[in-house]
Task: structure prediction
Amino acid sequence: MKRKDILRKLEERLARGEINEKTYLEIKARYDSEPEEPEGSEAPEAATPDLGEAIGAVVAQATAEASRHAGHAAHAVGEALRAVDFSGMGTKLSEESIKILGSGVVTGNPIKTAEFRSAGSARVQGPLEAKTARIAGSCIFDSDVHVEEFRAAGSTRIAGNLKADEVETSGSLQVDGSIQAEQISSSGSLAVKGGVDAEEFRLSGSVRIDGGLKAEEVDIDLQGASKIPTIEAEEIRVKATGGFFRIRGELTADRIEGEEIELEATTAALVKGDEVRIGPHCHVDVVEAKELVVHSSSEVRERRTLS
Result:
C-alpha cells in the first residue's frame, strides 16, 4: 500500500474517532520522514507496515510510558514513607496518613503526608507538610507546620512557624515563630512570639502576640490578661467579659489602627481610625478619629480629629 493511501486511511480513522489526533500526528510524522516514492513504483506489500500494527505500536508505547511514570510515582511515595521514622505502640503510618493514638514520636525531614492525626501525647521531630493536622491532647512540633487545615484541642506547641488556610484551636497553643493563615479561630490561650497575619482573627480567651497582629477583621472576647503591641485591621472589636464592676480580661497595646474600632477594657498609647468607640474600662493616651465616642468610665488624654 502506498504512503498516500495509508495516510488517507489514517485520516478516515481520525475522522471516525477511532484514533486521537496525537496518534495520527505521530504516525504521519513517521511516513513524512521517509523518502518520496517515485510515481508508478510499486513497493512490495510486505515492506509496507500494516496501519493497524503501526497504530498498535504507538498505543503500546504510550501505555508503557504511562506505566513507567506510575512506577516512578509509587517509588516516590515509598521513599517518602521510608524517610519517616516513628516510635510508640500507637503510631500508624500509611501512604495517606500518620496517626498517633496514645503516645508516639514521628521523625523526618520533611514529614509529608495527606493527614496527620494524634490523640494522646505526640511529638513531631521535623517540619510537617500535610493537607490536614488534627490534634487532641498534647502535641509538640519541633519545627515548622505547613498545612491547609490545622485543628487542635488540648495543649499544642510549635517551635517553628505555622502556615495554614484555616486554624482552629481550643485549649493552649504556643507558637515560637509566626502564624500565617486565612482564618484563625481560638478559644483558650494563644501565645505567639512572632507576628500573626490573617484575614479573619477571632479569639475568646487570652492572647499574647509579640510580633503584632495584621488582619482584615479582628474580634476578641477577653477572658484574661492579653498583650498585642500593634493591631492593624479594617474592623477591630475588643470586648470584655464578666460584669461591669468585675471584668475578667484586659488588653494592653501600643498602637491600634483600623477603620471601624470598638474597644473595651483596653489600655493603649494610640488608637487611630475613622469610627472609634471607646467603651468601658479603657485608658488611651491619644485617639485620632473622624468620629469618636468615649464611655464615661474610660479615660482619653488627648483627642485629635482626622480630616
The radius of gyration is 33 Å. Residues 90 and 101 are 5 Å apart (CA to CA).
